[in-house]
Amino acid sequence: MVATTQGLVTVFGGSGFVGTQAVRALAKRGWRVRVAVRQPNLAVELKPAGDPGQIQLVRCDVTDAAQVAEVCRGAHAVVNLIGILFESGKRTFQAMHVDAARTIAEQARAAGATRFVQVSAIGADANGKSEYARSKAGGEAAVRAVYPDAMILRPSIVFGPGDGFLNRFAAMATFAPALPLVGFGKTRFQPVYVGDVAEAIARGVTDEAPAGRTFELGGPAVLTFEEVLKLVLRETGRARLLAPLPFPVARMIGSAAQFSAILGIPPVLTRDQVLSLETDNVVADDAATLATLGIQPTGMEAVVPSYLWRYRKGGQFAEKATF
After folding, report:
1. pTM above the 0.90 mark?
2. Which residues, 6 or more positions from 212, have their beta carbon under 8 angstroms from its beta carbon?
3. Which three-class secondary structure string do you get for 72-95?
């Protein structure tokens, strides 16, 4: 049993891939955690992550300031993890990344919360190529205007069981004869383990040192897009062609594919995602990092085999491919 002595933290977006791990990390530290989600009934698996009554699921529409104010009431700290990878209906980058961040920060301040952690992304740039990058920067600015001492975290591609990156390509490799090598696979990533990101969030809520700073979170290795796809194929035991896809062609395909979002179907690729891929996704040389927080980054080789095995033809005990 964990003694809940730290106070109350409200986590927006706590039912997502990173959010679930962050909630567990905070509960383990003794925080009472109020998880603000659109559909609490779909996040019931979070309840056993803490002691009875330690984790509370509350419905909240982040476009409604009154609802946001209610879930921030009494919180000592607030974490904003809300983010989308593609636009759909009213869930635009502006609405989710900028307007929601501003509303959450304003209502958290009004409620008296003294700590604020904003989870952004590497590549956040007001002058970035993609709307995703520009809106992430806009969210950071909106939060900083209210909380100059907010901690901002910018992770690279996040991996771990349930991720939407490696699992996507692993699933694709089970039926597709080829995987798309967007931009000839030259884009560089610095994949970071979800557990390390969750630990960084927990330290931002608990410790005073990170306040007011921006941290870029990456793992111990930098890989090109091509190297990432080859890793996926090795771990899944699938021999697949890597089909070079120039950026101009990929942008056209993304423009057509993104219309599936209108039907509520997540698009395989969007034009904005292609624009994001035109910029490397790695930690800047002068950035504060996981190491600055005293966190030793976890390598992909220590985690990825534990969940990509499910895509092998022979399952967990099938031999790994040597190609």
Report:
1. yes
2. 148, 149, 150, 151
3. HCCCCEEEECCCCCCCECCECHHH
